[in-house]
What does this fold into?
Amino acid sequence: MRVFATCLPSSWQIRIGIMVLAVCAMHVVSAQAQFFPPFGGLGNFVGGVRIDADGVLRTATLEEQHQQLEQLRQNVVAPVGPLAEAAPMRLISLKKIQEAVLHSAKTEQPLSEDMLFLGGLTRVEYVFLYPERQDIVIAGPAEPWTVGPAGSMVGAKTGRPIVYLEDLLTAFRYVSNARQGGVSVSIDPTEQGVVQLQQMISRIGSNANPAQLVPMLAEAFGPQKVTLQGIPAESHMARVLLAADYRMKLYGMNLAEAPVKGLPSYLDMIRNRTSASTQLQSRWWMACDYDAVAHSRNRLAWRISGPGIKTLTEQEVYDSAGAVKQTGKVDAAAKKWADNFTAKLDELSTKDTVFGDLRNVMDLCVIAALIEAQNLESLAACDLSAILGDASKTETPKLAAPQSLDPQISLVQGVQGVLVSASGGVMIESWQVATNTTEDDRVAQAYAKASDWTTESWYQ
It folds into this structure.
């Protein structure tokens, strides 16, 4: 998310936040991988937003949310047996996951709901290697799943989003892309749009009507561009990145009230500023925030830890041609909002589950990069080539790629100036996390507790 400021005539006493809405993916049932059954539009409902008939992303109405949730609840079956109970550490065999995916694709039979939701994992914390079984296992806390209030699958006990097999397969298949430049999404204004907006503002008279100003600025600013790197634009993972950025904008630009206490909008925080720069703007983006990856001495056990996500900011400047350049500087108010948003992300992830979904996606990208960067396949004598890396041919449901962007405007009483939220993004630099490692004996202790695999199932 970027905010750039320019001045209105002195008689104006408003701040205007222009919020860019990404047109995300519509669910395309005909393009679904056959082993992913359509759960009543599960892939069509991320971050509490909908795609209307014109392909424009917007927040779903209460009636639409109710209808969608009822459909999901009719299609999603509650877990039974061991999966109906919470577990502090559930083990998931990647070898058996691969076998099941290949068998499902061959027979054209859908995978079980249990596997699609990875046994109810709410976070991936460990990677364990078992050379004697030629297997790599991921592990983390798990609980029975249910349909959350925003349409995500969440743990029935904590409300934390469930990890999806669909996102694991995307992270694994495109791990080489992550090595080359990371996984990212960015929403930016066009240079032409910036110039047109500046020209429009310079022509605004002191007696302009706010009701007329809103559509004038929106039209001048024009369509925005979405840049996606490292994963397919039609993937569920891409939808999560875009939806998370969208929700961050809503809270930052005072277009929605945060569902947690102590998270005011950025516009509220700068309400009493006496001036606004005509060129400088602040940009916010969400990035990985992990500790060094811990491993046992024999390198058979690995643990990822840390908050997972942090929010960063930097000032940028637009020139007269609308081109943007980084300054390397940070605005104090922008940093305060970014730090506050970061501090609230864990709490926010159960209230607005798209941020929990984003953290799960980041975990999976780190796990994929870790297996590749540390050569864990070879160490475990485990061949995951059917789901990991460029050779993988596994397909996941395809969603329509982002098409265009629409600006929305909020008016906030305050001091002179215009604030425009023009862009934003998410950056997942999983390879950097996976190559920052440290030895820790405590990881071996966790491995010892988990090593007694007593079942032929794909989970324990």
